[in-house]
Amino acid sequence: MKTSRWRSSGLMVLATLILIAVAAGCFGKKQATIGSSDAASKVYVAPGNYDEFYAFLSGGFSGQIAAYGLPSGRLLKVIPVFAQNPENGWGYSEETKLMLNSTSGFVPWDDSHHPELSMTEGVPDGRWIFINANNTPRIARIDLGVFRTAEIIELPNSGGSHGSPFTTQNTEYVVSATRFSVPIPQADVAINTYKQNFKGTLSFVKVDGKDDGKENKMSLAFQIMVPPFDWDLAHAGKGPSHGWYFFSCYNTEQAHTLLEVNASQNDKDFIMAVNWKKAEEYLAAGKAKDWTSEYYHNYWDNEKQTGVSELLNKVKMLDPKDCPGMLYLMPCPKSPHGADVDPSGEYIVGGGKLATVIPVFSFSKMIKAIDAKEFDGDREGIPVLKYESVLAGEVQNPGLGPLHTEFDGKGFAYTSHFVSSEVVKWKLGTWEVVDRMPAYYSIGHLMIPGGDSKQPWGKYLVAMNKITKDRYLPTGPELAQSAQLIDISGDKMRLLLDFPTVGEPHYAQGIPADLVRKREVKIFDINKNNHKYVTKSEKDARVVRTGKEVHVYMTSSRSHFGPDNIEGIKLGDVVYFHVTNLEQDWDIMHGFTIKGSESAELLLVPGETQTLKWQPKKIGIYPFYCTDFCSALHQEMQGYLRVSAANSNVPLLFSTGN
Amino acid sequence: MQRSSKLWIVGSTLLLLLLYVTPMWQIDLTAPQYPEGLGLFIWINKISGQNPGDLKTINLLNHYIGMKAITPSDIPELTYMPYIVGAIISLGLLVAWTGNKKLLYIWVTMFLMVLIAGLIDFYLWEYDYGHNLEPKAPIKVPGMTYQPPLIGVKQLLNMTTLSIPYTGGVAAGVAFLIGLAVAWREFRNQSKEQKT
Questions:
Q1: Pairing of the two strands A412-417 and A565-570
Q2: ipTM of this complex prediction, to 2 decimal places
């Protein structure tokens, strides 16, 4: 008896050890699916050569977008969007501060989630990229000629912009769905009156498609009041489904506390189909109510080289009750994240985080079901379509925690699975799983260049992972964020590369580099610089006092400032340095700062003017200098400013070279 | 004059018209930091950068060695050169119209003198820019001057400087050679006529 118990215990220990060994083998990080030298040659871009694709990865909680080259994974640029960026003065200079204005005041940070390229005929065109701010609801547009944020529009009547921006096939609209429902309009109510008092909205931002050098392109066309669920992600229809948007949602339980449990009770939540052409008709027919809701629209004036920040207050609000046929709910298991439309526009894939299948909806079946009124009741007046009536098929046993799907244009779909930490490749039409690739670790979104458009360039897939652990040399408890490059050109996926990223690589877009490079801007033409305080030539450099305000019209060129000696500044003055980089030479930047500045530096591209505001606090001599290594005599590019007592008689003087 | 000679002269003047629409000379500066190229075009009436901003950039770089800024408005030749070329063209057309051989020889001689004068003038300007340097220049290399070559390649500090005719200049040269060939033919014909 005793011996056999000991023996069975021993067997169990042995079995456990074997299991651990097997698990370690399976999940050990050293796994490589192809010979490492083969992988190295596939991602190697020789010095002086260029990557084939740009990949634009959002920074998540960094608030920015970063541009990488694929297949090398090299970081090319961090494009500041929603967060201040002292490295180039974004959100610090007087001109760029205006871009971060909101009805909550100046907001120095946000959480940027989903970049989305502008499209022509359903194909990314390389002009612009849009991205949402999750926390203070906004959508930004970045101009890819200059890799700068050109425009930011705030979204009123929104508790948080997550299902955003997602463009239509000709960039007619970008949208935003509220993740958090709140009272709309805002009100002081008890939180437990959620079901009675809270609401969600969908915002439709119209985009003026003209590539005319003007940067005020976005306008809030209308909003749709929707039930208080957590609206999560979206995609626009294309081809046959052009004219529709598909929004996923969870928390159809309408919980307001402990959502991890209380919003995970329903077996099915919804993907809502929105007929936006119908919405336009209702808008034209005057069905929208005029709401007064304040929001900021900030855009860059290219000629004046400054942000323009305007406070608007008119919103057209559509209530689904007044607009039959505009919204339909498709039941979707369970707490869906992605709502992803395949290149043909026929299939809509729901990524149910807690589902055991991946449901694929058919657009044509949906239209038939709507015509045949195959409804399963309604939610708050919005018809719920019968699941079976709209279902094209289900991918069985895909993995755990399916989140987001993109397509390779060759008949396959790739779905990220957070819980089982893998990319699952499956076939459209047969819904069978054909390949799996582990992700290190816990993949969120994935991206194939053009993979959510009509024309995927199905060569690479980027996995954006939420957990890094042991993938790189350690950097203390806070580790680099991580992305992985997977070759999807063959039948089997092959892991090529890990690369660390700036901020959380939340979601991304990719595009052949040539489509972006054709709009490349190298310098700003100084002759077209109409900044209010531009100094186009050193002989016009000057210092002008207006009461306590002092405006320094300063030039920078290799290797001096004009002026570089300034006297007559007094305590109590507010000094504005309007610095113009006179260079017209590619990549000859100049920077500017002055000792004790409480702001970031100015970083000026050739032909650009920016303004640093400075308030001296003590008398004395203050050095200022060029902060970007511009030339052999960069170190000599410096000057002095004299600050005198408030009641002193030192005259205003300025000079260079005397 | 033979009819074909007259036509050649007209052709020669047509070539000269190119000087009004394309540069006559180019100066290329090559350095590692300028993969996109950097250089000047010299026209009969202006000096321009090969890329927008090049003239400004070259002046900026040249100030380190104390070379004075190349300011087209300071070069009077750019004002009257279009008229000189115009005069050559007009006289050429007059030669073709009248068929006067004496006028032809005068025209070719004038043409040659203008070409030589132009090259000498160009050399003198280059000499002036290359030698007449600001004594307080930040970069002073003992014994170094910065005159670009008239035609050819020369290393000037980090810049490899190439100076060659551009389309307009080549056209002017060909136009002159046509004129010279026509004059030679007419002169030979004349000698033969005198012998017979």
A1: unpaired
A2: 0.85
